Structures are given as C-alpha cells and as structure tokens.
Amino acid sequence: MPEVCPILALGLYWMVYGVDSNANQVFPGNDQYDRFRKTLRRALETPGLANELERVGVRCDDIGTHSMRKGAATYCSSGSTACPPAIAVHLRAGWALGGVQDRYLRHDSAGDMFVGRTVSGLPILKADFATLPPRFKGGRDQVEVAKRICFRGLRRNVTLIAEYALASIIYHYAYLKEHLPEEHPLFQAPLMRNEQRIQDLRTFVVCGETSSEETVTATGIPPHVVLLSEIQFLKNTVELQRLEQKNVAREVIDGVRLVLEEAADQRGTPSCSRIATTVLDCLKEGGYLHQHPDPQEQAEPEAVTDSTHSTNATFPLHTWGGGFHAFPEGMTLPEGTAEQAWVFWCCGDPSRSLPPYRRLKNADLSDNKQKKRLSDLKFLMNLVEQQAVTLHIDTRSLTAEEAVS
Fold it and tell me: Whole-model pTM?
C-alpha cells in the first residue's frame, strides 16, 4: 500500500527537499507541530477529500493532529479479531498506563513488531502479512552510487534506512509516474531523470518472502499467519501438481496416438480417420456425397411447382464421431412454436442445407439434452401426422407454405 507507506514517504521527502547534514532532525524548523497541523488542515479542505468527509458525516474540525495516533491505535486494538497485545499498542502509542501496568508490563520487541506490521496496513488475516518490504538483492555498486546521487549529505547511521527508502521508490516507480503530475519536483531529481539507471536498479529490487540467500527475516509474525503461509504453500503445490498431471495425461494420449499411427503405417493398415478421409474424397470426386430422400418419401403424389423446399432435394453428408451423419456435429433443435417445429419437421432448414427433421436420429445428436428434446419432438409430431392422415393430407411432400396453411 504505497499510499500509507512511511518509508516511501520519507524517501520522497529526502529526494525532493534534500538532506541537511548539519541538522539532527528530519524536518527543519522549531514548530513542526503547528506546520503539520496547517498542512493537514489544507489537505482536509481540498475538494475531493472534503466531499468524501461530508459523505461519511465527518467535519474537517473533527480531525486533528492526534487523530492519526488515535485512529492507528484503535485499528491495532480492535481492527480485527487477531489484534496485537493491548499493552504493546499502548506503549507504542506513548500513553501512560499508570500503576502496576507502568511498573511491571514492559516493552518487548515481538509485540512491538507485531504492532508495526499491523499499523502499516498489511492484511492481518492473509499470508501476505508476513511479506517483507522492497529491498535490494545484488548490484551493491550501483545501489551505493544511486544513494549518493539521491541522498547527498546523509549521515552514516541512517544509510540503511535510505537504502530501503530508495528501494521503495524504485519498486513503486510506475505507481508514482501514474499518480503524480509530470511537473512534480520528484521527477526533477537527478536519479529520476535517468530512466536507464532506474531500470537497471529495478532488476535488483525484490519484494515479498525472503530467500535462503538473504540474511533479512520477517519479524512480528503471529502464529496464525505462519499457518496461513503453510496452507498457501500447500495450495500452490497442489495446483502445480494438477497442472503437471494434466500435461502428463495429454502427453500420454498424444504418445499412444502416435504409436498406433506408426504401427498402422508399418503394417499397412489404415487408421479410421484415414479410411474416412479416403472414402469422402472418392465420394466428392464422383459427386455422390449427398443425402437422398428416404424410401418412404419416394412416392410423391404430385410435382411441386412453387415451393421453398422439395423433399426430392439432396443434402450433404457430414462426418464426425467416426461415422456418417445426416446432420452436422453439434446439431441443436431450434426454439420456437409448435407450428415452427412442424415446418422444420416437414421441410428441414434449406438455409443451412439440412433435410427434414423427421430424419433426425439420436446418433445425430451429441448432447443428451438434445436427445431428450428430440424424443419429445417425435412424440408431438407423430400426433400431428396422425391427425393429418385423418384429413387425407400427405405430409411427405409439404412445402413450407403448405405446412402452415
């Protein structure tokens, strides 16, 4: 969360305003409290922030210089169900506990580090709570040169802080370019004007969990975060194994197919796909690759002179699933009214070169739901055909106009 990162903010301050080697304080002047109060007030009165405060029912006067400490202490104490110890929060906030507490309950590093991680905004209920800040790994000469360029006059006892600040700036460089205006003083600093040096430094910045090659370790980690980290590791391992097994299964299938094809070539025995391709090619060359009307449809009473579809028409054959089919793969029954279904049943779909749907068989459908729908359609159409027989209507040669008339 670069918005609330104090290390990034400190690095930006030093890079923009420089470092005074003769001063013992980070911020110059003798009235930092009043200056901070005025700066905070101006920030709260900006249009965007003022409107947001008004939306949540908070006035600018309700927030003061001590609000940050109070809000941070409240977040650490009750911001989740896995908060740091209350004593560690009180001591870090600098509040006197009084009586026995001030005398016997003392500061210790583990609780204080836990508070530091919590108040920094890390997700306490996720494994990322144990993450480490941006830092340099390798490139020591380049890093030292960059530190001298950015923080001239910095005292030696804070050079390590400056290194972490520089790493945070380099790590969030894209974020800064996106959210800060081009005329911001930060981009006038010597290092920020050298794009190539920044990209070189970026290769040495790491963020996240530590490795066995590093001496830095994560501190202030509660037990539940350690367990979450182990669970996350197991989850990642299982996911990796699943992908590997999927790849192995694919390789096995491809290998078996290759072996079978090679064996067929050696024995001179053609495969099913090769047989089907050869037969289709011969049928296409001879002009025989079409469907002919069903035998029951041969006896036509009269020739049809004006129609949108004739049952004597021929239709192409389709090959899929290792066989020939009257309908293409993935065939689905259309949605619509019973009248529309009757037209498809008698006349098919000329726009798609599909024969009358009365020729549909379960083998022409690959989806079980479509097979169930076909069964229902056949039952309904049989009832209609029976009624047509009683009316002496020959349904084998109906055109689309006749089917709906």
Answer: 0.56
